[in-house]
Each structure stands twice: as structure tokens, then as C-alpha cells.
Amino acid sequence: MAELVIPSVQYKKSSIEAVREAQAASSGLGDTLTWNVSEMEADFGAVLEDLRRYEPGRDLPDGFVHSDYRWLVEGDRYLGRVSLRHTLNANLRVFGGHIGYEIRPSARRQGYGTLALRLTLPRAQALGLSQVLVTCDADNYGSCRVIEANSGQLEDEVQLDFYDRLIRRYWIMLPGASGA
Ligand SMILES: CC(C)(COP(=O)(O)OP(=O)(O)OC[C@H]1O[C@@H](n2cnc3c(N)ncnc32)[C@H](O)[C@@H]1OP(=O)(O)O)[C@@H](O)C(=O)NCCC(=O)NCCS
User: Fold this and answer.
1) Which tens digits make up the pLDDT trace of 54-94?
2) Nearest-CA neighbor of 66 among 82, 52, 86?
């Protein structure tokens, strides 16, 4: 059964394979496409440290918010990743939102994207959030479906000066949460 876990060395081989896969297909989030696979092989500890750099929630670089990172795995197989941002800043409110996700190319179209977001919602609720903002490119049909399958309500579509695609902004309500 697939589950969200804290990134760890247990998934080194599979997560590096997934980066190779994404780079070969030129399909994935920006940082996945630019990671240096040789450096990952050489010092995976540094990769893990880098991934989790905003988790302590203090001494954050300008523009960054307290966030945490989980990998979606099944057994030892890396399937994808999710970021959960604990708060929004002005930029994230328009573009990025609370939750970002990616599924490796060979695991797509099997429900894992929908599952990754679904498993993240209780974690957002546990932070005291009553709703989460999730954004995607309007032409990213798979991502729109992932959000809609998790009861995302379309707020609007926006065109930004610095981005050449329309962005869809969705809110997902988290029933029973204690705060905003
Ligand atoms: C977007 C992404 C996360 C979807 O992951 P996934 O595991 O394929 O999603 P699911 O299998 O849960 O699919 C959800 C729905 O979208 C549909 N879908 C997924 N990818 C699709 C595609 N490329 N074209 C058409 N439909 C697609 C599925 O058929 C499914 O439809 P259904 O709800 O009618 O059953 C994945 O394609 C990905 O990682 N893309 C690159 C990174 C990215 O775009 N991240 C999101 C940034 S906002």
C-alpha cells in the first residue's frame, strides 16, 4: 500500500531512478529536472538535508515559508513527492499555494497523484488549517483532475505577467479544522 514517508536513504536508489526518468522524459517539477544525478549519487545525505531545509521553520531565506516534505512510496519504491507549506505568503497566495506534488513518469495515471494529495489533507488539517489553496496550470489536465478529485473548488484562473500560462487556483475545505 502506498504511503507518505519522511525522505530517507532507504529510497536512495529508487528516488534517483525517478529523477533520471523525469529528466529523460523532460517532465516533472522544475527542481527535479535540474538536479544533478551524479551529485545525488555521491552525497545523498546532502540531498536529504537540502530537501528538508525549510522544515525547522526558522531562519528562512526571504520569500520562503515553513514547509515540509514527504515522499509517496510503496515498499522501497519511490513514487513521488509532496510539499506542504504551512502558511501562504503573497506569492504563494497567487501561485504555488499550500501543496505541491509530483509523481514519477512511470507511476502516473494510476491514481497516485490523487492519493498523494488526499494523504496530505489530514496533515494540513492537523496544522490547524481550515482550507488549503492548490494551484496548477490550467492546461495541466492531470493536476486539475487530481485537485478536483479531492473536492477542490475552483476560485479563479489568473494570468500573471511573469508566467506564460493561465493558472488555476482551487480551495479545498478541510472540515472540522480548528483554525484558519
Ligand atoms: C499531475 C500529476 C501529479 C498527476 O499524477 P497522476 O498520478 O498521473 O494522477 P492520477 O493518476 O491520480 O490521475 C488523476 C486524474 O487525472 C487524469 N490524468 C492524469 N494525467 C493525465 C494526463 N496527462 N492527461 C489526461 N488525463 C490525465 C487521470 O486519468 C485521472 O483521471 P480521473 O480522475 O478521471 O480518473 C503528474 O502528471 C505529474 O507529476 N506531473 C508533473 C508535475 C506536475 O505537473 N505536478 C503538479 C504541479 S501543479
Assistant:
1) 988 888 989 899 999 999 999 999 999 999 999 999 999 99
2) 86
Instruction: Say yes or no to pLDDT of 50 above 80.
Output: yes
C-alpha cell of residue 82: 509532496
Q: For ligand 1, say whether the CB of 26 is within 6 Å of any of its atoms.
A: no
User: Going from the N-terminus, what domains does the chain have, and what CATH number goes with each?
Assistant: 3-173 (3.40.630.30)
Q: Is 65 helix (H, G, I), strand (E, B) or coil?
A: coil
What are the b/e assignments for 72-109, b being 16+ CB within 10 Å? bbeeebbbbbbbbbbebeeebebebbbbbbbbbbebbe
Tell me, what's the pLDDT at 113?
Answer: 98
Give the residue, by CA position, lying nearest to ligand 1 atom 17.
142
68 C-beta closer than 6 A to ligand 1 = no
How remote is the CA of residue 88 from the centroid of ligand 1, in Å? Answer: 24
Is pLDDT at 141 greater than 80 in this prediction?
yes
Q: Is the CB of 93 under 6 A from ligand 1?
A: no
Q: For residue 120, give the amino acid letter.
A: T
